[in-house]
Amino acid sequence: MLFFRAITVLFLALFTFQTPVNTEESAAVRKATFGTGIDLSAGELVSTYDNHGFHGDGTICTIIQFSDDALLEEIENAGTWQAFPPDEAVNQLLYGNYLDDPETQEPFVPPIEKGYYLLKDRNSQAAEKPNIMKRGSFNFDLAVYDADNRTLYYLVLDT
Q: Shortest CA distance to 101 belongs to which of 53, 49, 138, 142?
């Protein structure tokens, strides 16, 4: 009988005092990993912001810092990322107040000299209206990697 009590206490202790795995931070990194198709778990989460509301409209900005160039090598080998400078549409999205921090009114992404970007257009009109800037709404994921600072910015805009 004592043996079963000891096993029960051990079992409860293991599951009661365990740190939760699904924190907001790990969820943000998982979303960015899913959106980019690249494992970002080796990075350190700097910040995350998500103001999506009831109807799904909102902005996400997740910033992840890396300590080495392993992610840069993975991005270069992926074949889906574009090298900087960004095209006109991506430049407008990054710095034309579509992705500004509401508190500071500054872009979430600082000016970047050397890096890569990946734009995933999720808008239902993408095929009919390929110019993203001439639509009435935005639904996209934009990942930007600053190679000089080893920083990834994962941005989502849903309007």
A: 49
DSSP string spanning 96-142?
A: SSTTB-TTT-SBSS---SSEEEEEEE--TTTTT---GGGSS--EEEE
Q: How far apart are the first and last CA of the chain?
A: 61
Other CB atoms within a 10 A radius of the CB of residue 156 amount to 23
- Chain centroid to CA 90: 16
CA pseudo-torsion sign 54, 93, 103, 109: positive
Instruction: Report pTM.
Output: 0.73
Q: What does each of the 159 residues of the chain score in pLDDT, given as a tens digit?
A: 555 454 554 444 444 444 444 465 577 777 777 778 888 888 888 877 777 667 667 777 888 899 998 889 889 888 889 998 988 888 888 777 666 666 767 777 888 999 999 988 776 565 565 666 666 667 778 899 999 999 999 888 777
Q: Among 35, 36, 47, 119, which Cα is nearest to 71's?
A: 36
Cα gap 84→137, rounded to integer Å: 25
Q: Is 120 exposed, middle or buried (0-12, 13-18, 19+ CB in 10 A)?
A: middle
